Amino acid sequence: MGVLFGNYLPELLSGLWVTVQITGVSFVGALILGTLLATCRISPIPPLRAAASVYVEIFRNVPLVALVVLVVYGLPEIGLNPGFLPGVMLATTSVGAAFACETLRTGANAVGAGQIEAARSIGLTFSGIMRDVVVPQAARSVIGPMVTLFIGILLSSSMAAVVGQADLTYTASLINNKEALGLITFAVAAAAYAAISLGAAGVGAAAEKKFRVLR
Amino acid sequence: MRTTARSRVLATLTAVALSTLALAACSPEDPADEGADEGGGDAYTELVGSGPVADDAAVEGNEWASAVREAGVLTVGGTETSELFSLLDPTTGETRGFDSGIQQMLSQYILGEVNMELQQVTVDTREQVLESNTVDTVIATYSITPERAERVAFAGPYYSSQAGILVSTDTTDIQGVDDLAGRTVATQANSTGVTLLEEEAPEAEILALPDHAQALAAVQQGNADAYVIDQTLLMNAVVANDDVQIVGEPFGPEDPYGIGVNQDSDAVDFINTFLTEIEDSGLWADLWQLTIGDRADIPDVPTPPTPGDTGL
Predict the structure, then answer these.
(1) Per-residue confidence (pLDDT) for residue A215, from 0 to 100
(2) What is residue B191's predicted lDDT score, i.e. its pLDDT?
(3) pLDDT tens-digit profile of A110-131?
(4) A187-192, long-range: CB within 8 Å, 24+ apart, which pairs?
(5) Is A72's CB within 8 Å of B208's CB?
(6) Burial level of B6, CB count in 10 A (0-12/13-18/19+)?
(7) What does the DSSP 8-state code read for residue B145?
(8) Chain centroid to CA A47
(9) How far apart are the first and last CA of chain B?
(10) Per the CB < 8 Å rule, is B217 touching A73?
(11) Are the Cβ atoms of B214 and A174 closer than 8 angstroms?
(12) Is A82 exposed, middle or buried (CB count within 10 Å of its CB: 0-12, 13-18, 19+)?
């Protein structure tokens, strides 16, 4: 423990920072892209619905490891080179968006059909219905599942280690190779992941209390 | 359908013929660089043929060499799949490369003509085939290590590998290990490359990737500025890809390749005499130039290691 924190605290912190960056960017990206996809999936335009469904089915069913390798080494072959760290973020975002889309769609479906009818009858357009009726209520009911998605993305960010990016997992394994400290390094890394997850769960619980839907 | 003995024989023969065809079809690819010397042709055969022959007294005074002469053929444990060191040419059934050249010259040194039989060995079987005397010697980029030296005896070293630097052919500002500072350098995560880079190029940004293919792709796609690993591995990459090159002097600890023989044999001194002869006559340098230098575009012939100086 002394060796670990005495010699490697800067490395561990910078690893943690990389993990936080990947998780933050991917989660925000997944929310934005997921909202767009969910809107497409419940829109009245069939081609949009189909395209969004295809996207979700593809990215929900590709193992993230395979996707990371495809993005990082495959895209440059067709002239797009995101680089390693942005490539990992892109892969995690793409998968996260598929799950975010499904979560949001479920939330939107929870909004009563009667409310949609009512909104239509007072002359609201599709975008108006989404903005003023569906999204505010759907967003509240999906806070719990979104916390779960956030934790999933946090744990997925460890895929960065596969392509040599020095995130928390990679740093732990590197320190372990050098110092042979055994499980303690990984225990520290695991504790850091758990702390972030618990923090996210706490934020989610508070938000749920605040924005509870009155039905 | 009743299977008669005859149709069984026929079926077996057909299966054997088909699998032979299939194996022949799986021959290694031709090297992609058309412009380079193919490391062979008549130049190779001529070079090997111009090797020395031991005088009778030397062979008769050596138990191991006498046994080889008695058998009329040198049985060597080696490989058929090493691009630069020993690659099978399916059209002739002969292997060519730096190791092959050493094997063929050694057989001529003992027998007066090139006559050798290659047994394929793997990393796991090399000590085994020497201990059981299945082969006379193993010449297969066989690194000398203390652990192996407990089980087999090593003549040589006849070649020494170190870490090298591979960059894309567009890269001009990396000429050696000192230029790696501040650059992204790929290496293999499970190799000694990480430690080596930390010592030799402490300012470099290390990118540890799972395997050779990924590290090579990282350089080719511009995600890494250089790739540092054992130079033998890099040379194979250069021969197979024309968008990468090796730069600078090899650096770091030396990895000596030895010629493995049975621990109870008296072959070590005999083979070391042979190695000293081909090194002193310049044959070693010519063989290196033809099989490695010309094909991997490395201009300077390295200094051959001193046989007997195994570092153990």
Answers:
(1) 53
(2) 81
(3) 888 899 899 999 999 988 998 8
(4) A188/A4, A188/A12, A189/A12, A189/A15, A192/A12, A192/A16, A192/A19, A192/A168
(5) no
(6) exposed
(7) -
(8) 26
(9) 65
(10) yes
(11) no
(12) middle
Residue tagged 């990282």 (tokens) = B218
Compute the distance between CA of residue B248 and CA of residue B234 in angstroms, rounded to an integer. Answer: 13
Residues 6 or more apart in contact with residue B220 via CB below 8 angstroms: B168, B241, B243, B244
Helix (H), strand (E), coil (C) string for B189-248: CCCCHHHHHHHHCCCCEEEEECCHHHHHHHHHCCCCCEEEEEHHHHHHHHHHCCCEEEEE
Residues in chain A: 215
Q: Mean pLDDT, 10 residues at a time, over chain B (312 residues)?
A: 48 44 42 42 88 95 96 96 91 93 97 95 92 96 92 95 95 95 92 90 93 93 95 92 93 94 96 97 96 90 93 82
Please report residues of A whose CB lies closer than 8 A to that of B186: 164
Residue identified by tokens 């916390």 is A147
End-to-end distance of chain A based on CA atoms, in angstroms?
A: 52
pLDDT of residue A213: 59
Distances (CA, A) of B247 to A92, A103, B255, B298, B307: 37, 53, 19, 9, 27
Give, in order, the Cα–Cα distances in Å from A77 to each of A70, A74, A81, A92, B218.
10, 5, 8, 20, 11
**What six digits make up the tokens of B165?**
């630097």
Q: Is the pTM of this model over 0.85?
A: no
Amino acid at A20: V
Query: In degrees rounded to 5, what are phi and psi of residue A76?
Result: -60, -25
Verify whether the Cβ–Cβ distance A73 to B221 is below 8 Å: yes
Q: How far, in Å, CA of B114 to CA of B103, rounded?
A: 9
Give the whole-angstrom CA distance, residue B58 versus residue B66.
9
Task: Count CB pairs under 8 A between chains A and B.
Answer: 29
Pick from B157, B135, B160: nearest CA to B79: B135
Question: Which residues in A156-194 are b (16+ Cβ under 10 Å) and which e?
Answer: bbbbbbbbbbbbbbbbbbbbbeeeebeeebeebbeebbe
Q: How many residues does chain B have?
A: 312
- Are B121 and B129 spatial neighbours (Cβ–Cβ below 8 Å)? yes
